[in-house]
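Whether sequence alone determines local backbone shape is best considered at the level of individual chains. Part of our work consisted of pairing the sequence of a single chain with a tokenised description of its backbone. This step matters because it turns folding into a mapping between discrete strings. For completeness, the protein is quoted in full, as a sequence line and a line of structure tokens:

_____
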Amino acid sequence: MEHNMILSASGWRKVFAESGDQFDSGENIGETNTFLCALIAESFVNYVQNKTRKTKPVIVLGRDSRPTGNQIATAMIKAMLYHKVKIQYLGITAAPEIMAYSKNADGFIYISASHNPIGHNGIKFGMNDGGVLEASQAKLLAEDFKSKLLTINCQTHAEELLNLTDEKKYARVLTESKEFKKLAVSSYEKFIKTVITGTEKEKQQEEFFSLLKECVKYNPLSIVCDMNGSARSLSIDSSFIQKCSLGFTAINAAPGEIVHEIIPEPENLVWCAEKMNELQKSGNPAALLGYMPDCDGDRGNMVYWNEKQDKAVPIAAQEVFALCVMAELAFEYWKNPKTKKLAVAVNCPTSMRIEEICKVFDAKVFRGEVGEANVVNLAREKRNEGFIVRILGEGSNGGNITWPSCVRDPVATVFAAVKLLCIRDTVNKKGRVQEGIFHLWCRLSGQENKYKPDFTLSDVIETLPKYSTTGVSEKRAVLDVKTEDKGHLKLRFQKIFMQEWDARKQELLEKYSIAGYECITTNGTKETRNATDWNNGNGGLKVLFKDKSGNPVAFIWMRPSGTEKVFRVLCDVKGERPQTEASLLEWERALLQKADSNMA
């Protein structure tokens, strides 16, 4: 049986819509896809049984709000009931919600294709550590699934999984779903308090949220969310944010009400921005911050009120992540200035602005391959080495993962900005001023002249390092290549690049201050500096450009997507130099196209 799925550690994905059209909003998945779902569920059941040594493990199942999710879930429930698994079905649930709740179970299956178009769907797998399976374990699961498809009777077996279900037990799973959903929401709300405050101690959490509420009395703040019908429409967002004394307004808030493209990039943040503009004009000056999650609710980018432009403005993904990194590192410093061995784990194409921010707080930056699982595992490795990794993530995609969470979370993203806006300078009982988070950042980064007591988020953003970076959703960021062996493609690129480098050295120096370069490759959690062999298979490859003093000034990056059949490219340039970014990216694209045409 053919599966036509992309099987990666970040999730298994394909177009599940029966028509095969990635923009099809229909709910039917067809017979073949139904069989595949049954075999996928069985593979995971076998995996969990082997890992836990339990014949009847507890597996949590949930889905995002895509129309095909219901039929996929139905097939999976029936297949798991065949194996007498204890199923806790949450229905529509956000990714951070199911991952927080599944810590009480043996494993979880989450049905989602994240930010992909509506006709896509997919499956994420995890145990009870709050994150998806690490790459090595995900590979074992994928191999088992593929071996099932090679058996002669796989279709007959799939039919058996689906047809021998005890209907009473199936009905009970659906009936119990509401109660498990309530438990999941409660568990998630408790967990997010730990994520936001950085402590499990309830007294310290109460002190933080009391401080937050007191600050909001003098600096009112209201949040706008374009749910876009996502799984977050049935999660904690509205209730939790309002419990924190913050205002909250949601649009497109009915689950499944997906009214525009799913990916939370600037072109799709306009709906949120329009609502903020409307609220401001109708007399709500507190509507200063907004966000839009993707369909599974783990990724979210932001919009803010720019009083200088008198309108709401989207924040680019790389800048959102930079803002969160600065906020969380400053928050750690605010809690304890003596904290040592701070670190941040990011993916290879995250902008170099992160290095500049981390330098201010004496924090190390570690880079791994693209893929949330890779970044999460890299952070785990560094914690085992004694580093404090408070924040991590994929800057190229926006959003952030804040420890102890192992998944991106827009609520954590929003509260990073809330901390910046609300934790301001205070005077203690001895009459001494305790600097707020933004004031700390300004002083430590040598920008105290930019601090003022009545600062806004516009003022905060102006203090971040300036870079010009390709957006991942731009057409320029995707290249259609025909070469199947991506490692061989990179070797041809290496040969052409070196020829061009010799020919353009002087031009690159005069135009862009580029005097040298270094090749960096990433595979999983491993980063290889000064790589001489550019063939690292499907991993990430970066050419880091340096000035005469050896300081990084720009980079170009490439990697075949692990979740879509595309080849991704990106350029990052220090400073507000969009023309340089465009020129270097076009150069990279031209060299790759030449390599792809076998002209190397």
